[in-house]
């Protein structure tokens, strides 16, 4: 476990209105710009916020990562897991801005999302704060390496 | 076999607590059944026709006596004294209460077991060769690789909401005893020309309503890239697998629609990206895993046994498999007594199998995908004593790989998806052939029954397959011939119009008559079918 306890104390409550961020693990100003579609983002040279829909190819954004402050990944239904891959693709390519999960974001998925690189959560329906806290801290360790900085069990075993 | 360290144990314990929370929220009405459904499914809990069904993972089918005793205790404590071993080398309980499930999972965790990812659209239990570590013909024990993949796939953050379920099999011999190419990913561990170990990847096989044999995707993946390559295969699937139609959502459809060349190209591209990410475990981890699967201390002993008792001789000939040590065999405990329920075992039988494993097989058992139990390392000198105790408990059926060794799904007796009953049909078929004394004469003949098109009973891959369908409100059975799930994988073909329950039993008998009439020296049913084709069978059935 690396920075989980710190994550918890950093976790800020951004209110419960449906289109607002409920949990955020960043210290910078929250971006207050409307997100455009992936297509528009690729056409407009000044867009700083973009929303990825499940069918979009996150790799189309890779040339523009420097200017992006906010990437929203929409989960129209929690069962559609394409957004997890989109998030990891962006983080693996070096994106450091805000990565926000929006839509049908539920307490039982936010732990996985956090591991894939999401650092902000704007669920359609607010999540019970205690349940969320428990969910973010659920796994004492992890088996896989992602970009979230946690050291996988199989590395801990051979330190 | 593999034993948990404190890390593995902590993960499983955390999962029990998570499920306890989730079940509690459901019981309090704080989440809807719709929201609860995928959560319980990822813990192997299905809502069936009469009750909840819980599927417990038995990784690559390997378990010890302590675990088998616990499975028996669970059958008594939470079910009705029975368990059902499945084609995924797992065990299912059919009468489970939601309120008790978390306690059941805690009992499992106390013996290093769990129900994690035994259902749901995620990576399922990794399956393997049931004779792994024992078979004379294997290159190396495939289970360390299966265990590595088990850990990698457990709670995978990116691949827990895939388009559909995902099954991986790992084998390490040219003889395929795990239906490897009928998996979403089939892996065979091989040696290349330089003598290095690596993995052949087949991707996009499966049964279900659109059966497909997995094409070869990569001839050699070095062992220090095994996880990375698997991750690339999964990521392409997670991003591009179809989600518009659940019947077209398996990876086989993606590979088929893209073509294997294009799918492979995308995987290789993703693989290159992932190589930079360092997702691969250190090779030291594989080295750590291997000793858990090291050979037990075999000792030399008699290489043959007195076979003057004909019943014992038949069992010893039928139900044992050649071992890599010539003083040992692998012995199969048939869970297919004549007129029994395929794969069912009572708690008493489970306790006995556990005791026998401890006494005669270095404390180890395997679940076969054909729903039987293997004692992998039995001294030839102990065979008669073992058989005597199995016989006394009704576990001595000498019918491995015969027409009585039927795979059957739970069917309409339990399953909410089924169109027809499978179990009673299996019971009547084994009874028919046993009564006629035909079983041994027919030799190897794999009969597989599914109660619906989802093919849990592997009917496509049976030498003889039976598919239950619903025909205007009555149960109807289609007959298929010529399937195989071995290294010569093939899909059975439908003979023609279906039959009612009595009719399909007669039909099976007719096709076996044709086989006995037409077979040439040494031919199995499958060989004769492949030589003479469908027509002679059709004529006998329909003219």
Which structural traits does this protein have?
heterodimer; A: about 160 residues; alpha/beta; seven-stranded mixed beta sheet; 6 helices; about 25% helix; B: about 550 residues; alpha+beta; Sulfite Reductase Hemoprotein, domain 2; Sulfite Reductase Hemoprotein, domain 1; Alpha-Beta Plaits; 4 domains; five-stranded antiparallel beta sheet; about 15% strand; globular
Which assembly state applies to the chains in this document?
heterodimer
- How many domains would you count in the coordinates of chain B? 4
Largest interface, and how many residues on either side? A-B, 40 and 41 residues
Relative helix content of chain A: 25-40%
For the biggest β-sheet of chain B, the strand order reads 1-2-5-4-13
- Taken together, the total number of domains of chain A comes to 1
Average pLDDT of chain A works out at 87
Give me the count of strands of chain A: 7
Count the helices of chain A. How many? 6
Low-confidence stretches of chain A: 1-18
Proportion of residues in extended strands of chain A: 15-25%
Describe the model.
The complex is a heterodimer of chains A (159) and B (543). Chain A is α/β, with parallel strands linked by helices. Helices cover 26% and strands 16% of the residues of chain A. Chain A contains 6 helices and 7 strands, in the order H-E-E-E-H-E-E-H-E-H-E-H-H. In chain A, strand 3, helix 2 and strand 4 (49-52) form a beta-alpha-beta unit. The longest helix of chain A is centred in the middle third of the chain and has 11 residues, at 82-92. The relative contact order of chain A is 0.17. Mean pLDDT of chain A is 87; it is low at 1-18. Chain B is of the alpha+beta class. Chain B has 4 domains: 6-109, Sulfite Reductase Hemoprotein, domain 2 (Alpha-Beta Complex); 134-289, 2-Layer Sandwich (Sulfite Reductase Hemoprotein, domain 1); 310-392, Alpha-Beta Plaits, CATH 3.30.70.3340; 407-542, Sulfite Reductase Hemoprotein, domain 1 (2-Layer Sandwich), CATH 3.30.413. Helix content of chain B is 37%, strand content 17%. Chain B contains 17 helices and 20 strands. Chain B has helices spanning 6-27, 33-41, 65-78, 98-109, 143-153, 226-240, 251-258, 260-275, 283-289, 310-318, 347-360, 383-392, 423-436, 439-442, 501-518, 525-532, 535-542; strands at residues 45-47, 52-56, 62-63, 82-85, 91-96, 127-128, 168-171, 185-191, 197-203, 216-222, 320-322, 328-333, 344-346, 365-367, 373-379, 407-408, 447-450, 464-471, 474-481, 493-494. Chain B has a 5-stranded antiparallel beta sheet. A 5-stranded antiparallel beta sheet of chain B has the order 3-14-15-12-11. Chain B has a 5-stranded mixed beta sheet with strand order 6-7-8-9-10. In chain B, a hairpin with a 5-residue loop joins strand 14 and strand 15 (373-379). Chain B is globular. The mean pLDDT of chain B is 96. Classes of the chains: A alpha/beta (159), B alpha+beta (543). Chain A binds chain B through residues 54, 57, 78-82, 84-86, 88, 92, 106, 108-109, 111-113, 115-116, 128, 131, 134, 138-147, 152-158, and chain B through 5, 7-8, 10-11, 14, 18, 21-22, 25, 30, 35, 38-39, 121, 151-152, 154-162, 235, 238-239, 243, 273-274, 276-279, 281-282, 284-285, 288.
């Amino acid at each position: 476990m690396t920075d989980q306890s710190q994550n918890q104390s950093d976790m800020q409550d951004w209110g419960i209105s449906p289109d607002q961020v409920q949990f955020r693990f960043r210290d910078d100003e929250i971006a207050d710009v409307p997100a455009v579609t992936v297509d528009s983002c690729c056409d407009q040279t000044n867009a700083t916020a973009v929303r990825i829909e499940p069918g979009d190819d996150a790799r189309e954004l890779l040339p523009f990562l420097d200017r992006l402050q906010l990437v929203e990944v929409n989960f129209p239904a929690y069962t559609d897991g394409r957004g997890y891959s989109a998030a990891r693709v962006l983080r693996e390519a070096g994106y450091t801005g805000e990565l926000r999960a929006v839509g049908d974001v539920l307490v039982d998925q936010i732990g996985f999302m956090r591991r894939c690189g999401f650092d902000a959560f704007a669920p359609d329906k607010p999540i019970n704060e205690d349940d969320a806290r428990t969910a973010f801290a659920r796994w004492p360790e992890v088996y896989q390496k992602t970009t979230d900085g946690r050291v996988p069990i199989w590395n801990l075993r051979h330190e | 076999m593999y034993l948990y360290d404190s890390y593995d144990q902590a993960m499983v314990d955390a999962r029990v607590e998570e499920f306890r929370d989730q079940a509690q929220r459901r019981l309090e009405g704080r989440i809807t059944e719709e929201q609860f459904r995928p959560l319980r499914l990822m813990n192997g809990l299905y809502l069936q026709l009469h009750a909840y069904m819980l599927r417990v993972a038995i990784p690559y089918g390997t378990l010890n006596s302590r675990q088998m005793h616990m499975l028996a205790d669970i059958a008594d404590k939470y079910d009705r004294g029975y368990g059902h071993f499945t084609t995924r080398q797992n065990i299912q309980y059919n009468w489970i209460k939601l309120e008790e499930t978390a306690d059941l999972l805690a009992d499992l965790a106390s013996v290093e077991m769990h129900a994690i990812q035994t259902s749901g659209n995620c990576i399922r239990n990794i399956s393997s060769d049931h004779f792994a570590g024992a078979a004379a013909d294997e290159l190396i024990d495939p289970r360390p690789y299966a265990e590595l993949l088990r850990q990698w796939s457990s709670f995978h953050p990116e691949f827990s909401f895939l388009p559909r379920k995902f099954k991986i099999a790992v084998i390490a011999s040219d003889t395929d005893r795990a239906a490897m190419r009928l998996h979403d990913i089939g892996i065979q561990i091989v040696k290349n020309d330089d003598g290095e170990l690596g993995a052949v990847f087949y991707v996009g096989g499966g049964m279900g309503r659109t059966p497909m044999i997995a094409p070869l995707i990569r001839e050699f993946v070095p062992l220090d890239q095994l996880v990375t390559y698997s991750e690339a295969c999964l990521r392409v699937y997670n991003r591009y697998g179809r989600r518009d139609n659940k019947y077209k959502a398996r990876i086989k459809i993606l590979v088929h629609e893209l073509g294997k060349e294009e799918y492979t190209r995308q995987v290789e591209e993703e693989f290159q990206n992932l190589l930079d990410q360092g997702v691969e475990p250190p090779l030291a981890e594989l080295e750590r895993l291997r000793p858990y699967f090291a050979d037990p201390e075999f000792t030399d002993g008699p290489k043959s046994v007195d076979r003057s008792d004909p019943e014992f001789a038949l069992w010893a000939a039928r139900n044992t498999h050649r071992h890599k040590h010539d003083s040992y065999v692998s012995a199969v405990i048939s869970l297919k007594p004549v007129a029994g329920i395929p794969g069912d075992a009572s708690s008493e039988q489970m306790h006995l199998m556990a005791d026998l494993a401890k006494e005669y097989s270095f404390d180890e058992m395997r679940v076969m995908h054909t729903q039987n139990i293997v004692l992998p390392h039995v001294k030839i000198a102990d065979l008669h004593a073992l058989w005597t105790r199995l016989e006394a408990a009704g576990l001595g059926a000498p019918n491995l790989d015969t027409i009585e060794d039927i795979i059957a799904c739970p069917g309409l007796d339990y399953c909410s998806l089924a169109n027809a009953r499978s179990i009673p049909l299996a019971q009547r078929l084994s009874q028919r052939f046993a009564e006629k004394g035909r079983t041994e004469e027919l030799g190897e003949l794999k009969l597989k029954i599914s109660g619906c098109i989802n093919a849990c009973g592997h009917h496509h891959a049976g030498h003889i397959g039976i598919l239950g369908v619903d025909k205007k409100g009555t149960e109807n059975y289609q007959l298929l011939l010529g399937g195989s799930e071995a290294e010569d994988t093939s899909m059975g073909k439908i003979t023609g119009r279906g039959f009612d329950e009595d009719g399909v039993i007669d039909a099976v008998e007719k096709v076996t008559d044709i086989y006995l009439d037409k077979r040439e020296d040494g031919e199995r049913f499958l060989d004769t079918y492949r030589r003479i084709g469908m027509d002679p069978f059709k004529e006998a059935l329909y003219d």
